[in-house]
């Protein structure tokens, strides 16, 4: 999200879209991703505590297209970690 282009705002300044904690934002990152920098995603997740960060061992940039990973994501969203 934040790795490309020049934004008119800082992602760190984003406000929690769920101020009453009725939901959360999930961010999945493969630890073998060669397109999106892992340290950048970790930094954003650390600065915005309302983001639930999921780092996936052995997964690359297109992990979501794997049937197994799609099921993991859906289960996490429906039932939690």
TrEMBL record:
InterPro entries: AB_hydrolase_fold (IPR029058). It comes from the Eukaryota. This is Uncharacterized protein.
